[in-house]
Structure formats: C-alpha cells, structure tokens
Specification:
The complex is a heterodimer. Chain A is of the alpha/beta class. Chain A is about 35% helix and about 15% strand. The model of chain A has no long low-confidence stretch (mean pLDDT about 95). The chains are: A alpha/beta, B mainly alpha.
C-alpha cells in the first residue's frame, strides 16, 4: 500500500475532501467541543465482567466530532500512529457520512481497528500530535472514539469489506503467536500474496487481546470479528500448537515454511521476591485474568474457578493492575485495592482506566510498597505488610524515586493478592532456537526497524522484542516486519530486487 | 575479628574484598547456562576490579574526602529474599538482587567498622569505603527500579 507523503497530499486534494474543507469554516470547526464518550453507570457495569464500559458514539456524535478535524495540510496526527493510519482520510469520510469507506481506510493499514479504537493509548500517540493539542492547547479530535465508531459501524452493518489482496506467490510463512503483533503481521503478509499460517499455543486466537484484556474493555466478540476478517483474507490459524514443543522451528522448515515471525509475547509473570510470596491465595495477574477472561471463571458454575474473597489487594500501577482490580470488584470483592509504590502521577495505566476504576469504588493506596505476605496456619495469605514510601529528590536522570519512610510500616488485610508488577518475555522460543540472539531481559534481539533477528529468516516483534508494550506498538512491529520480510523473501525466492 | 594496624591495612583489606567480589562474579559467570547472563556477571566482575585503582591510588597518597551528602538508599534489596547463588539459570532480576545485597553487605561492614573504631583517620577511611559501596548499591538499585519495577 502506497503511503508516501505525495499520496497523502493527493488524497487530501480529492474533490470530495476539498468540498468538505470549504463547507465549514475553520473557526466554526474549532468552536465545537470535543465529544464525551457515554459510559454505562458504574453500579450497573460492575455487575458483570461482560458489560462494556464505554458505549461508543452515535452516528450524529461521530459526524460532529469528525467536523472538528481541520484536515491539516501536514497531518501530524499520523506521525503519532505506529501503524500509519491515514487519519484525516478516515475522519473526513465520517464527516461526509460514508462510514463504511471510513472503515475501509482504517483497514488499509490496521488489521484490528475495532480493537485499537478501544485499547490504544491515543492520548499519548495520535491525539497528542493533533493540531488542537499542538497549536491550540485544546482537547484533541477524539481520533480513538472515531476509529471505534467506524469499525463498529462496519461490523454491525454486516457489510464487512476485505482489503485488496495481491496474487498468491505460494511462499509459506509461519507466525508464532496470535496476539496483536502476529495478527497485524499476518494481515499485511496475506495482502502481499503470502501463504500465512498462525500457530497459537492456547485454544483461542487473539493472545493478550483475549486472555489479558477483560471484556468490559474489549469484548471478545469484537476481537473475533477482526480475526474472522483475517480468515476471510486467507490467513490460516492452528490452535493448541506450541512452537518449540509441539514442533520445532526446524520441523516447520521441513514442512515448507520459508520464514517465521515470532510474536509470542510476554506471558511470563514477574514477582517481587518478597517473603511469603509463595503463600496460597497470591497469584499473578496473568493467571488471574486468564482464568477469568479466557476460561470464564467469573461464572459461578465454572469448571475452572478463580479465588474470590472480601479483600482483594492488587499490587502494581499499570493497565494490567487496573484490569485485575476491576475484575476483582466484578467478582464480588467488598474491598478491592491497588497498592502501588510510586505516586498516582507516575502510574503507567491509562488515565481513563484509573478514572473508571475510581468510579467503580476501587481504593488506591499509593506510595505504599508490599514488603511481606503473612499467611494463616494453612499457608493461605491473610495480610500484607506494607512500607509507606515518599518520593525522593530528583536524581541525575531527573526522576524522583520512592524511598521508604523509616518506621512507617503497617498491615493490610487480604484474602487474595494479585501481583501485577510486570511481565517477562515467553522464554520458549528464545531458549529453544539455536543461534537466536537474546538480550539480558530474555527478549529477542532484532535489527531496529527491520525486526529481523540474528537468524535471517526469523523476524520478531511485539512484547517478545520490547518486553512489555502496548497493543498498537506491537502491531506497528508486525507491519515493519512484514514490509522487511517481503523484501527479504522477494530477493531470496522470487529473484526480484526490491527497493528499500 | 580482623585487626587493622594501619590505614594501609584497611585499604589492603578493601582491595582484597573487591577482588573477592570480582572472583565471586567470575565464578557465577562460569556457571551460567545463558550466554547473556555469563556476560552480565563478567561485567559485574569487571566493575568490582574497576574499584581497585581508586583504592590503590589512596594507598599511594592520593587525597580523598568523605562527602557530607548521604548517598540515597532506596532500600530495594532490603526487602527481597536471598537468591540461591548455586543456581545455574539465574535471571537478570535475580542477578540484580544478588548484586544489591552484596553491595549492601559491604556497605554495612565498613559502616560498622567506622562506628566501632576510635581512631579518627581509620574512621574516615571506613566511611569513605562505606560511601563507595553505597554508590555501587545505588547503581544496581536504579537499574532494578528502572527495569524490573516498571509497573510498580
């Protein structure tokens, strides 16, 4: 897909765009207030894990919000998008009421628009680069809300378009892991004519989108539609298949796969290594969320239940911590609390998620660090000893680090503790493939922007390279890897020199 | 308990401690299955050896002073359980815990020696050595804070 600056400019000069540009004066566009996302009331939504918090925009709201977009000559918002969506083009299609065309523009470069419209941190990416923020210091055009609107409209209309595909070249490509990075890569490669098979270790496709992100933020049905879209494009999916165990990379090579994209993610939970951490009732956020999101443990009659309790303590301040603590609330916790050793300002979670958590009655104990878990006579956790912290003076890097306040320790009651302090890369591929360069963090080393590993036919991206990042950055890696693997394969197998 | 009869004695002891720490990391490096972890422990060993010239320079008469500002103690390692140094598959998180605890123990040793000694010149040397170890510990704590405690 052509994405040059000239292409973007020419698109902007199309007759319908010029007509729209003239239709509404700049000052009238700027006088419109940013749309507010309608949410389900906290007391209603916490009744179920499956009730989505945000309701989405109506067509009228979307068209008005789209009118705010200035259709800038130099759309800086696009520079903030890791998958380079033609943002003004899809938004202007919404403004003119052609919602299906808007969805089609999204799919030119994004395999998962309905997902990204829900979980991307637009406030630090495209929206942060919006004209309104950069030049007017006003709220950005709600690009994320509009993306979700267009993708949802298409899905609900039933008129789901399939992007244009190149003629098949018969070259077999294996994708290891069906998370956002693998799916994004698969989408681009199938468009280029490759024969793509995605291998997934679990019984469901979607990786972290399914096992990690709760349905109140991202319904599985939304993910499934995007996956089915890839199926319709020709991507094959094989579940319950662990590359490195079920079969090795070499086995797959013997079966004719010419190149590999490793997007196996960061599914290895990290713990704090403090006393008592092995007590019963302390689990990783990976386990907690997977049991609920993937195995349906929120249902009373589930075959694979999860521990419930009155007092749930979740350790950490990222999105996973927010997902875990809000899940605990929905599972009936009377008191669900975040314990985080830095201040709220430094929480890596999205502001929206912290806001929603507070609305739902989640307690926040910041500048508080667990230092020991205390178990009962049966080895089951009953309390957490915590150390109160304060922020120190900025160090050489300018960062204020938390320092313990001498003598200020206390006890918090806990029936279940969920540890959400970060994840490490899945070790299976890094440990099982000879010749693969791996960092001290266990991540696969790749050539930056090419995503090619020390083994030329193995590319990698997403959390297995980054160690823990966002859905959209993982997708961006998938796109870069696809573009570069295409060059590599064409040169190697199709005797076609490709301009870089 | 070891007796120190001169400042040179103290410095020789400290130089030997640095060498022992370097040997400890070199042995660990040799045991590691993972190449990257081998390199990390080799790097730690080099850092320990790198502390020697400063001590040797002081022994030869180079002036030193004990900074008045206390080195920040994030106390990250204080709450963590010990890592089994006999393992052959130590992770990077565990390597940092090992290093933080080792530096803390060295700091405590010199600080305790400074507390119990009555000779002011010796006290000053011990305090300087304690400060050096506190700096080394802080270097590992910052690495742990930046890379392991990313979501906490």
């Amino acid at each position: 897909m052509e994405r040059s600056e000239e292409y973007i400019k020419n698109e902007r000069k199309k007759e319908w765009r010029v007509e729209l540009q003239k239709k509404t004066k700049a000052k009238d566009r700027m006088s419109i207030e940013r749309v507010h996302m309608t949410e389900r009331a906290p007391e209603d939504r916490i009744k179920s894990q499956r009730i989505e918090v945000n309701k989405g925009l109506t067509a009228e709201e979307a068209m008005v919000e789209a009118t705010r977009c200035m259709d800038c000559v130099n759309p800086t918002c696009m520079e903030g998008c890791p998958v380079s969506i033609n943002i003004p083009k899809f938004i202007k299609n919404i403004e003119r009421g052609d919602f299906l065309q808007a969805a089609s523009v999204l799919k030119e470069t994004s395999a998962l628009p309905a997902v990204c419209g829900r979980v991307c941190p637009q406030e630090i990416q495209c929206e942060q680069r919006c004209f309104y923020v950069e030049k007017l210091h006003q709220p950005a055009v709600a690009i994320g809300y509009l993306e979700r609107f267009a993708a949802d409209f298409e899905r609900e209309s039933g008129k789901i378009s399939v992007p244009q595909l190149a003629e098949s070249n018969g070259i077999k490509i294996a994708v290891i892991g069906s998370g956002p990075s693998g799916l994004s890569f698969a989408g681009d490669m199938v468009k280029l004519g490759y024969d793509v098979t995605v291998f997934e270790a679990l019984h469901e496709i979607g990786g972290v989108l399914k096992y990690g992100i709760p349905e109140f933020r991202l319904p599985n049905a939304v993910v499934d539609v995007e996956i089915n879209n890839l199926r319709r494009m020709g991507v094959k999916f094989i579940t319950n298949f662990i590359v490195g165990q079920t079969e090795s990379l070499d086995d797959l090579k013997k079966e004719g796969f010419k190149a590999f994209y490793v997007g196996s993610g960061a599914g290895l939970p990290r713990f704090m290594n403090i006393p008592g951490e092995n007590s019963n009732g302390i689990l990783s956020s990976n386990e907690y969320l997977t049991r609920v999101n993937l195995m349906g443990a929120d249902a009373e009659d589930s075959d694979t239940p999860v521990l419930r309790g009155k007092n749930i303590v979740v350790v950490g301040g990222g999105n996973t911590a927010m997902d875990s603590v809000r899940t605990a609330k929905r599972l009936g916790a009377e008191k669900a609390m975040i314990v985080y050793r830095r201040s709220e300002e430094e929480m890596p979670a999205r502001i929206e998620e912290v806001h929603h958590a507070k609305q739902e009655g989640i307690e926040f104990s910041t500048l508080t660090n667990p230092i020991e878990y205390i178990a009962d006579e049966n080895g089951r956790v009953k309390q957490v000893r915590v150390q109160k912290m304060k922020l120190g003076e900025p160090d050489a890097s300018g960062r204020r680090r938390p320092i313990p306040i001498e003598g200020f320790e206390y006890i918090i009651d806990a029936t279940v503790v969920v540890v959400a302090v970060g994840v490490s890369p899945n070790p299976l591929i890094p440990n099982s493939v000879e010749g693969l360069d791996v960092s001290r963090w266990g991540t696969i080393e790749v050539v930056k922007d090419k995503m090619q590993s020390s083994i030329p036919e193995v590319f990698a991206g997403g959390d297995i390279v980054r160690g823990g990042a966002t859905v959209i950055l993982a997708m961006g890696d998938g796109r870069k890897a696809a573009a570069n693997m295409n060059i590599y394969l064409k040169e190697k197998y199709l005797s076609q020199k490709v301009e870089n | 308990m070891k007796e120190f009869n001169s400042l040179d004695d103290i410095l020789d002891f400290a130089i030997n401690e640095e060498q022992m720490a370097a040997d400890f990391y070199t042995d660990l490096a040799a045991k590691m299955q993972n190449q990257e972890m081998k390199e990390i422990f080799e790097q730690y060993a080099l850092e320990e050896i790198g502390h020697r010239p400063k001590l040797e320079a002081i022994k030869k008469g180079k002036q030193y002073k004990v900074a008045e500002d206390k080195i920040v103690d994030l106390k990250i390692g204080d709450y963590l359980i010990d890592v089994d140094a006999e393992k052959t598959n130590i992770t990077y998180q565990e390597a940092l815990i090992l290093a933080m605890k080792k530096e803390k123990a060295a700091f405590k040793l010199y600080n305790d020696l400074a507390t119990i000694t009555t000779d002011m010149a010796s006290k000053k040397v011990f305090l300087m050595l304690a400060q050096e170890e506190a700096k080394h510990k802080l270097r590992f704590e910052i690495e742990y804070d930046n890379n392991i405690l990313t979501e906490n």
